[in-house]
Amino acid sequence: MRTAGFRKVLLVGILAAEGxxxxxxxxxxxxxxxxxxxxxxPSGEVVLYxxxxxxxxxxxxxxxxxxxxxxVKVKYGSTAELAATLLEEGSRSPADVFWAQDPGGLxxxxxxxxLAPLPQKTLGLVPENFRSxxxxxxxxxxxxxxxxxxxxxxxxADLPSDMWGxxxxxxxxxxxxxxxxxxxQVMVTAMRKLWGEDKTRAWLQGIIANAAKEYPKNTPxxxxxxxxxxxxxxxxxxxxxQISKExxxxxxxxxxxxxxxxxxxxxxxAGVGQLATAPNSANAQRFIEYLLxxxxxxxxxxxxxxxxxxxxxxxxxxxxxxxxxxxxxxNVSDLIDTRGTIKLLKEVGALE
Length: 352
Fold this sequence. Notes:
The protein has 352 residues and is an alpha/beta fold. The chain contains twelve helices and eleven strands. The longest helix is centred in the first third of the chain and has 15 residues, at 54-68. The radius of gyration is 22 Å and the shape is globular. It starts with 5 loop residues before the first strand and ends with a helix.
């Protein structure tokens, strides 16, 4: 479990030098004899509960603070943990913004009426299917579900067109999965919405019958595919790109975007909402706006290899454009019942 403590994102350059973070205000250079600098001093901070990993988003938080002069106080944790914390804290929460890895956590917090409506100008920056139907949270980056396959052992022509094909006996002992991972659980939530409970249960039982090897999360799963430990794995598209960048090499693996549509062709979003009781509501709104500005969207595209959600920002090299994918016809609000999905995963033995 990641730390539940707060961390302060430090400003850099002139903002730090002028004492903004310490609350001292801006100062004239020593011995200048001039009036205090006209550099605006931000009022307050923004308190962020982040279900996104620190390694992914901390550089962007520094960019935000540098651009706006608003310090960010962050509590990191899993999306599920932080959603539970917000539900427990209720109106007493110090949080201004909840940044979730997936729609499930945001949906749980929204269902408790803990999120404030967002301005239409903010919601309108992204396609309708990537924002809450209630208008109280918005997606800021997209992640496509893919099948990662080992290029030495599998050819694209060998792969089925949709997820159901992996229940066939020829995939016995060749599959890796991460049923405890939040993104996988969102995909199963999409299965329940598109296929119904019975077919989803049958799919899970079929994957278990094919002796799928379990991994704790996507990174070791993708590494196992690249090493040949398993031949295919169900993951998000950007893990392969991130691992290749970190290791400085081309892995013996590739992403396969399922052409048949359905839940395996899901595009999920990481999203943000403002708490209805946000102590720093103006700063919270500014933070959310920043995540949908071109600078932040380029960061998602080029640094974390996610899909930008606003128009006019180029995707990373090698990615298929979102418009070219046969994506599942779902709104993000259809993906919030992860609690029911966890119950089903436990019933079939995929989770303890």
